[in-house]
Fold these 3 entries.
Entry 1:
Amino acid sequence: MILMRPLCNYWIMKLFVAIQFTDLVKCALKDIQEALRECGVRGNWCSDGNLHMTMVYIGECDEVDKIRLAIDEVRFEPFEMELGRLDTFVTKYGRVIWCGVRNEAPLNDIAKRLRERLDAHGIRYKGTKFKPHISLLKDANIEETDVEVERVGMIVDKMVLMKSEKVDGQHIYSRV
């Protein structure tokens, strides 16, 4: 039997570490998206299945075990995260409308320690400054953010390793 090598490394994935949301938080975020639509905002909406908070974007990598070890080494006490105000920023892909959180300090600390652990394990990642946010819409046609955000929160007690895949032209995020 002759074993053939694959033309590409299928096991190399686009990875990121994230906080996933409860159904209650996802519902509140979907309500915000609907309110923005009613204000005439158009663009590429983040699907409810993809709503998350990225703690660090790693990109293409096959060192899943090292990344999981780094995540496990970042221990923290569970804390409450509550949705905050809406805002925008501009990327090379256009204007992004995002939802912030009310108490950023625990998330900032966790992101800093996660990056330190990834560094210690030799894992490269996108080194942009961490700003706790949840992307709701990319390539927005207007900068409408005057939408009320319901005071909804959840207990954050873990981070998860996720991958990004493009399936039938859509980005799909799932746990690794």
Note: The CA atoms of residues 76 and 110 lie 8 Å apart.
Entry 2:
Amino acid sequence: MMKTDVVIVGAGPAGIFTALEMLRRNTRQKIVIVEKGRSVRNRFCPKAKTGRCMNCKPYCHITTGFSGAGAFSDGKLSLSCEVGGDLPQLLGSDFVQSITDYTDTIYLDFGADTHVEGAEITDEVKEIRKRAIRAGLKLVDCPIRHIGTERAHQLYGDIEQYLLDHGVEIFFDCECNNLILDGNKCLGVTVSLNGAIEEIRAEHTIVATGRRGADWLEKLCAEHNIAHLPGTVDIGVRVEVRNEIMEKVNKVLYESKLIGYPAPFKNKVRTFCQNPGGFVSQENYDNDLAVVNGHSYKEKKSDNTNLAILCSHNFSVPFNQPIEYAQKVGELTNMLGAGHILVQRFGDILDGKRTWEKELVQSNVKPTLPDAVAGDITAAMPYRAMTNIINFIQAMDQVVPGFASYETLLYSPELKFYSNRVKMDERLNTNIEGLHCLGDSSGWTRGLMMASAMGVIMGRILTEAEA
């Protein structure tokens, strides 16, 4: 049995920024981080050499390991608290914005690019906003600091080394099995380490397992009566167009964050993770679930821009398994693609036909995910989600002419698992004493910056008593 003051489950942004802020505030507490994956410097995706997804076991190196999916993401930091989740609802917008600003300085200290995209409200931005209003969409003002996929890998590697150099103990290839509870108090966790089951006892246990661990955390909540509510799950597609179509938006905003509530269902639909000159990518989750994502590099560029269009689903009684619902949609799509990501032209969707490989070869838009399988995503996508996506794309065409062209590519499935909303107070306490849940798996954040900021808040709370 090991004893420590703080044990953090998951070395994603929320977990590592908790430890980082504690160190920056000169903590005397012992910190242990357990991570299912590897050190960031030992995380490699073989697809760069093989040209296709190898379905790595026991986990995907893009989604698992130090810094979570952040090490292989496009590394965009949203500098407005209006973007990135619902933490302002819990703690207040002014406070969360101030923490976001502070967290941004930490990223800068570790080498993030000083340039900020979309910070100026120019006449061109006003024109884009005017077209969005006419289309029934809202343009969200959100400055972006773009780290870049290759730079993110280096930056998080430097953070990892900083934590190790300052006494944080990190156990890699260490999977958390369960919580240790005594009545209504959490005493730590049990983990699988070096082929054995070990106990790590701690005064404070922090679960920060990211989107990949959302399903696992939901099961823990059910098993241990951790107060939570089914929240939102996002189901959608990744859209890819030629850079020429997005040229003005890419130049003026870099990332256009647009929100709409298209008829007839009025569900929230939004753009997410826009990658100018980027590449569509595949990520693998547990049970061999393949989902689509997008990356953009600082130096390496493609002829295309990709972005996600996500439809938010909120379920009411008696249904309380939104994550499982989204997984089933993904599994059905994977089945149609023989385990691969499906891609279809927008015009073929409107014509009610599948897309064939030879048609992709003839198109202006060449897929940047070479092993995506041409097919029919509408055969797996729920009617409500597909209708929302089609209507949103057509509204987007009024903002970005050509966005809804026949050759626009739609990849599926794009799924975001953060639906389990853990109930917490303003001190980030759950109803279980000594247990805190952070980041995307908690249901309160979405993305790198807000998860990092939530970690900073947790770090300050844990060190206040030492002052």
Note: Residues 273 and 331 are 23 Å apart (CA to CA).
Entry 3:
Amino acid sequence: MKTRILKFLREKDGFVSGQDICRELSVSRTAVWKAVGQLREDGYEIQAVQNKGYRLLSAPDVVTEAEVASRLHTEWAGRPVVFLRETDSTNNEAKKRAEAGAGHGTLVVAERQTAGRGRRGHGWESPGGSGIWMSLILKPSFSPARASMLTLAAALAVSDGIFRETGLRTGIKWPNDLVAGGKKLCGILTEMSTEPDYINHVVVGIGINANITAFPEELRDKATSLLLEQGRPVCRAGLMAGVLEAFEKYYGEFLKTLDLSAMKETYEARLINMDREVRILDPRQEWTGTARGIDREGRLLVEPAGGQAGELRPVDSGEVSVRGVYGYV
């Protein structure tokens, strides 16, 4: 009820009469009054004037089910939203719920993670009240070999969502780190449960440093936040809605070809590694070269240093890590 009334108030200009709310949502005046009271307790400023009705004046920076769901304009992404005050990892929670029957599009959101994870086993700082920690459950019918490409699609979606909400243009460090000012802003971790030729579920985890004001000393040269980059806080729920809407669009494009051909040009335009020297941290042998873009399957195409002109070697994100020759990017 809170979500429906909040969405209704948010999408209307000015006052909305209680009668209109009752008629549109098929609820009683008492139900409306109770829901408005609950929203006020949650920190929403809602003005009530006799003979005019209700008007939403301000909303707290929260990522609750009601706040996120009331901002969504998607068909399936983020439907439903599951909100947790605290969890070890939204990816872990999403995997449990997927195994228990949670459907395609279910979004798990936490205000704080106690054991957030990044790629290749790295930890992820996840303080409460200032970041976006969310995981989207997908239940696709395509081959498991195709799932890793969704990570790159998610990176594009986050980039789009950030630009829509803040106007900030971000780069992508292959395959899936969002970068601003030469520092990491967002990480994406895609995990899946499979049979030999069948996907049980895919979980796309997204961690965005939104309103974090400071980082531990060991991360200050590597990590940044939207607040630090633009000098003002961002509406976290609004950003989440933008990311989910963009991901739904890119996911639809992906399903048409089951590769990244429709996104390749857009991705390469944001690829900060493009035409730059990179180090390939392959467990078998470290080597250097120049990044020349991606192929239809999302592999980084690298021209090896000292190799033949025009020779391109595809690099798979599941096997190696890429760094700039002189640092993170």
Note: The first strand starts at residue 45 and ends at 49.
